[in-house]
Amino acid sequence: MNVLQAIGNTSMVQLRSVVPPTGGRIFAKLEWENPTGSMKDRMAQAVITRAAEDGRLRPGDTVVEYTGGSTGASLAMVCAVQGYPIHIVSSDAFSPEKLDQMAAFGARLTLVPSEGGRTTRKLILDMIEAARRLSQAPGVYWTDQLNNSDSIAGYLALGDEIWRQTNGEIDAFVHCVGTAASLRGVATALKRYKPDIKIIAVEPAESSVLLGGQSGPHKIEGVGIGYTPPLWDPALVDDIIPVPTDDAKAMARRLAREEGLFAGTSSGANVIAAIHIAQRLGAGSQVVTLLADSGLKYLNTDVYRGR
Q1: How does the average pLDDT of the chain come out, rounded?
Q2: Selected catalytic residue, list 91, 266, 267, 294
Q3: Which of 29, 38, 40, 74 is labelled catalytic?
Q4: Which of 76, 73, 85 lies closest to 39, judged by CA?
Q5: Is 194 part of the annotated catalytic residue set?
Q6: 208 classed as catalytic
């Protein structure tokens, strides 16, 4: 047995203090219970294992990826266990904790400068281009998360877990969109059990491109890439809710202080959107969302520092 077998089967808790007294019940999966403190361990295990099994990733190859941090830490952890060197393209737009965690697992880092520490469409495209150039060297496997459907498979089990933990009593699933792989994987699994379940996507209000708005800078790390991600499947989604960065940060702080749940900014956005849906569906409904990663990844950001 090794650490990869500790991925998944995370706890689920009911939110009580931050939820209005009216409306449905809201449950959250504690995805920070995965080994690196993030749900991304699920996709990292899937993309590395599948590539190794079919020969795209060979012994001695170097893995390359562009990432805001959590995916990088997860890939670096999986590569450390399975013996692959890894080179990650990231940016100063993302928390120093994430960069330090990637390096701690042995990743080599290349950092692309951002515009004032914010996530923008240009930054994502610059990171992708830097990774593409690295991928042209011999003995390199580029996981290319925005275009890699293997990552969807990594989240099918998450949907199965949610179904089991709710005993099938779930009316809606709510989650932020980054690559769209996690939303798509969970939605695919849940719809096998309950075809009419409501699937709700969440995105930064400052860059609400899925709703047809303009791309813009924001500070909800790991989501809102500024254009429609290639893995996005609108046929699976019933609604899209935009959440402002400041509101997401404020909810992350409330979760810590009122629920004892220490999570990142996208988790705050998830909970805001879940509250909206629980109010819409009304009493007796059950809504599930994800606390995607640990607040420990954001201690030196303005989400928590000095607050």
Answers
A1: 96
A2: 266
A3: 40
A4: 73
A5: no
A6: no
